[in-house]
């Protein structure tokens, strides 16, 4: 999705802003641009395509500038052209704006401004902002006032940064439902929609809240909240961020690197939390709400995409281990549903980025219901992490590939821990599951060690157009997630199904050209899954199975088998996910696709 970076201080601003834009490239974008202020003149450089192109153009500039804002755009209103790229400006280029989010009432504002004589050169919603600020500025000659007045007219979601030749030594920013942080340096400030873009310069960041308007100069940052009508001195937080984790190392793609981080991810998510020898699981992030949790008899999990599928595994875990009724809802559906909600229900939001618009909206929906809101989030300090009452961080480190891999591993690990912490140690699964969480990193490594044979199998199936993924019990969410992974990186049509549903429709698709990926690991339901595989084989459908080491029978039944170590049914989704992730990865590589940045997708979906 779109990214914002800004700088004000003593250094040359453009290289810092461009480097920040480069670090946001992984989020997905199609054009990029920068506005610099130099001696009360504005310089706008923007173009469709990669940041590297922008970097080359900016390098040709000869002016000096200590104030700049930049943007990577992921097209929503209007195609990815230079004209639609940000920054946008008013007609005489005295006010420059970059914007993330959507201005829902832009058409009405545009019509009003056109009637006032304003002309527009792009198809974007964003372009109304500089013109609107210009409109108000003409009446007051006060940029801050004009900006605030313009904001009052905007409906939708935004992270906005403004620079202007009228007041050349400041950056104005505003936030509503779209993340923005201000990095604090010595005599300099950085601005970014994602803290990772400023982490090479400072670890001290100010998180802006909804309705905050900040005025940033080289000497300070003042924040005014439009809703509360008050100004405050913002407090910077120290972020724990290892920029090494965000680099490729020796791996050809981030997706592969992140899949190979699975053992470390499970270890890191369990560190200090899981103590099998003492029979305890300790989640510091939930301690403040432990009393409230005692009265919870229903949990609604809200999430999108892969995080939603992790939630489905969580549903099985929480019901079986903690005995609490769970419902998992797609955040995009939850927010528009009218369902009865009592205070004995808790809302659990799962999100890698912590910035997914629909998940944020789901949390906002219950803001006034008085229900407990818990988060399972990877990105520290993100919007969801800050808006929930309590939560458990995934500690998976930065995830760069658009396809979520290690985050799923961390989310399921944390869900197992939450299930244990809400359950009773007398549950017969308590001790074995606790022990298994400690043993899992080694087992995850064993799955990774089979990568060369998974690669061979993937290459054999890379030419297929369709794929079905099936599983039962804990392996059903694995089937859904496996299908999502395959379709998003390989563009192969893939569907996940509960194996028991085959005869209710999907079996009709099966023939020798339609392969099935069967999650057939050891469980009480394995015989039933065998029957489903038999039905597929009877119709000549090729079958790749994931099975538990030692299962020789399945090799006779299926065309290809990927073996994973024996584990509890409750932890099978973790090992199965590594197998399906590798399978999807190697198919995408075989098809020579852009694995880390699949077409049409963005890493963090910050608009509805
Ligand atoms: O950051 P989140 O976990 O909230 O993101 C949710 C989905 O957008 C995300 O999982 C998406 O489905 C991934 N591309 C899947 O690999």
Q: What does this entry show, briefly?
A:
By secondary structure, this protein is α/β, with parallel strands linked by helices. It has 19 helices and 27 strands.
Structural account:
The protein is an alpha/beta fold. The chain folds into 3 domains: 3-241, Glutamine Phosphoribosylpyrophosphate, subunit 1, domain 1 (4-Layer Sandwich); 249-447, Rossmann fold, CATH 3.40.50; 450-597, Rossmann fold (3-Layer(aba) Sandwich). 35% of the residues lie in helices and 24% in strands. It is built from 19 helices and 27 strands. The strands form 5 sheets. It has an 8-stranded antiparallel β-sheet with strand order 3-2-4-1-10-9-11-15, covered by helices on one side. The chain has a 7-stranded antiparallel β-sheet with strand order 5-6-7-8-12-13-14. The protein has a 5-stranded parallel β-sheet with strand order 19-18-20-21-22. Strand 25 (516-520), helix 17 (526-538) and strand 26 form a beta-alpha-beta unit. The protein is globular and about 80 Å long. The termini are close together. The model has no long low-confidence stretch (mean pLDDT 94). 5-amino-5-deoxy-1-O-phosphono-D-mannitol is lined by residues 304-307, 351-353, 356, 359, 402-404, 484, 488, 604-605. 5-amino-5-deoxy-1-O-phosphono-D-mannitol binds next to helix 9 and helix 16.
């Amino acid at each position: 999705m779109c990214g914002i970076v800004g700088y004000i201080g003593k250094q040359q601003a453009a290289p810092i802003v461009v480097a920040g834009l480069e670090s946001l490239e992984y989020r997905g974008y199609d054009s990029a641009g920068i506005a610099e202020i130099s001696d009360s003149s504005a310089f706008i450089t923007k173009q469709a395509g990669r940041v590297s192109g922008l970097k080359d153009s900016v390098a040709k500039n000869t002016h000096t500038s200590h104030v700049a804002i930049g943007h990577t755009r992921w097209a929503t209103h209007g195609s990815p052209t230079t004209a639609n790229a940000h920054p946008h400006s008013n007609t005489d280029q005295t006010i420059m704006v970059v914007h993330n989010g959507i201005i829902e009432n832009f058409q009405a504002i545009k019509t009003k401004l056109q009637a006032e004589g304003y002309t527009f050169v792009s198809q974007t919603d964003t372009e109304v902002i500089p013109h609107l600020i210009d409109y108000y500025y003409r009446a007051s000659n006060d940029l801050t006032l004009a900006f605030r007045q313009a904001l009052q007219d905007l409906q939708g979601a935004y992270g906005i940064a403004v620079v202007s030749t009228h007041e050349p030594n400041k950056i104005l920013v505003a936030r509503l439902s779209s993340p923005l942080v201000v990095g604090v340096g010595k005599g300099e400030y950085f601005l970014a929609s994602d803290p990772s873009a400023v982490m090479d310069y400072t670890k001290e960041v100010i998180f802006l809240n909804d309705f905050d308007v900040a005025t940033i100069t080289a000497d300070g940052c003042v924040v005014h909240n439009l809703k509360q009508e008050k100004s405050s001195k913002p407090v910077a937080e120290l972020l724990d961020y290892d920029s090494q984790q965000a680099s490729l190392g020796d791996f050809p793609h981030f997706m592969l690197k992140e899949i190979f981080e699975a053992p470390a991810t499970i270890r890191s998510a369990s560190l200090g939390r899981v103590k099998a020898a003492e029979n305890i699981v300790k989640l510091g992030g939930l301690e403040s709400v432990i009393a409230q949790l005692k009265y919870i008899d229903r949990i609604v999990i809200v999430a999108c995409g892969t995080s939603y599928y992790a939630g489905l595994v969580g549903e099985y875990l929480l019901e079986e281990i903690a005995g609490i009724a769970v419902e998992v809802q797609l955040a995009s559906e939850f927010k528009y549903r009218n369902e009865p909600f009592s205070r004995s229900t808790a809302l659990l939001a799962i999100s890698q980025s912590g910035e997914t618009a629909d998940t944020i909206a789901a949390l906002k929906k219950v803001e006034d219901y008085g229900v407990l809101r818990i988060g399972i989030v990877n990105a520290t300090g993100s919007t969801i992490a800050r808006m929930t009452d309590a939560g458990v961080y995934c500690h998976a480190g930065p995830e760069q590939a658009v396809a979520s891999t290690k985050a799923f591993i961390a989310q399921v690990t944390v869900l197992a821990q939450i299930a244990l912490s809400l359950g009773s140690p007398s549950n017969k699964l308590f001790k074995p599951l606790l022990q298994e969480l400690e043993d899992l990193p080694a087992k995850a490594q064993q799955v990774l060690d089979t990568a060369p044979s998974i690669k061979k199998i993937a290459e054999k199936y890379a030419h297929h157009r369709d794929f079905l993924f099936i599983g039962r019990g804990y392996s059903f969410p694995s089937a859904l997630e496996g299908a999502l992974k395959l379709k998003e990186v390989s563009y192969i049509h893939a569907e996940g199904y509960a194996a028991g549903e085959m005869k209710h429709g999907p079996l009709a698709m099966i023939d020798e050209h339609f392969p099935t990926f069967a999650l057939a690991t050891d469980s009480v339901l394995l015989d039933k899954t065998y029957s489903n595989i038999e039905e597929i084989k009877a119709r000549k459908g090729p079958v790749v199975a994931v099975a538990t080491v030692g299962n020789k029978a399945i090799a006779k039944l299926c065309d290809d088998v990927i073996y994973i170590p024996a584990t509890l049914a409750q932890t099978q989704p973790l090992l199965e996910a590594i197998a399906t992730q590798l399978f999807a990865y190697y198919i995408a590589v075989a098809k020579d696709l852009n694995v880390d940045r699949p077409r049409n997708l963005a890493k963090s979906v910050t608009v509805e």
